[in-house]
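Proteins fold reproducibly. Next comes an illustrative record:
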Amino acid sequence: MEISGIISAIVIGIIIGVLGRLVVPGRQRIGILWTILVGIVAALIGSAIAAAFDVADTDGVDWVEWLIQTGLAAVGVAALDRTKVRR
């Protein structure tokens, strides 16, 4: 992976993390850095899943890939929020 790929993964991860946080109802008790990290991980895993189902490279905007990534980010934010509540 080149540096431009890493930078784009971070930028997309920030967007995906914020979208995932907006999807989860209620107030989350995790910080913005955790949201960004969850978004980056969700973006990378979501891209791999989309590539496995052969929906990663389409003409125009890759809506299916974005939906997968956002869904994973929402699950990650909700899971991390639940672990923060227990402590």
